[in-house]
## 1
Amino acid sequence: MYAVCLRYARHALEAQDVLQDGWVRVFDKLHMFRGEGSLEGWIRRTMVHTAISNYRKKSFQQERFGLEHLPEEPVAATAIEGLGHAELLKLVDQLPEGYKMVFNLFAIEGYDHAEIAEMIGCGESTSRSQLAKARRFLQLRISERQVKIHEGETSDR
């Protein structure tokens, strides 16, 4: 569950706080678990909702980083295949907070934009926009990585 919290936190200490708050919430609401589905899934959703509550308290949903100017260029599938799991998580962790929250909820947790909008208190269009900007940010970082790798190959020859 720590990995779930870490995806939504700005740093390890915040993730630990979210994890602790999440476990308190799990034990307080354990009587509400109806046995429909897995206990692990229920705990995971509780941790995600705890992380979102923490996010709301910090009021980061209004962040704007001016990434609208980023070019939206396709990234070769081989660029993504060349990324390891740890590298990909590191790139996602570099996302600005609002983008990271929406990206995690949509791409990793599987929520739709209506659910995300309700959870974090924004409009569906804001959720879509944040996801698009997160994708552009990641595309730019992956493209930069591709260029560095390509430059390294040509300088080795």
## 2
Amino acid sequence: MKQSYDLMVRPVRAADILEVTYTNKRWELFKRFRQGALEIMAALDKHGIESLVHGSVARGDVDEHSDVDVFIPYVVPSYRVEHALREGGFEPSKREVVMATPWQLPKAHVYIEEDRSTTFPLVKPKQLELEFYYFGGAVNLKQVKQGVRVPGVDKRLILIEPTNKGHVEGPVVGREAEVAKLVGVGLEIVRERVQVLTRRADVGRTGIFVQRELAPDENFEAVFKELVEENPAMKLRLKEK
């Protein structure tokens, strides 16, 4: 379901400023997703692990296709993450190592349910890789508890700015510097995302370089080490740490 929806989303190169008012149903959906994020983030925080929730759950413009992805923005031993989740009552349904390209950030994904997951990097992220999450909107545990919503850019390359009634949306293309300032990131990540998303719309998805599911008795660090040994191209990203 989610994959087919993603394929339908195309970036918008030009758009009018539009004010969107949420229905009660949409506000309830937002509260449900926020609660789902809060439970995971609180379980991690109890064990000293800071995290963010990003995307539509941070902005507020959720719909039935949204999901909760809690991101840990620094390297942390996988056993600590998995122990914290299990202590919080979350039993992983799937675990996998994902690397989009040989030069991009290798990440560990722990899926709790179909629409809830925790992600953490397997090497130290570069600044641009961290700003990727803030580009789409990201909030920490304290902000989630306070009900804070933040501006961010969706997959259509539309800037979402929260309001008391819903949000205001407008184009990113042609407003890159303004958007960077509004979402609190550098201009480089805005230009990079515009390039990537428009190219993806033109040529289609090119697949994922590495996507390796772990067996129950495997750990992320060992699997990642094996993958690096099997795929010399993965060393490109490691050299950039």
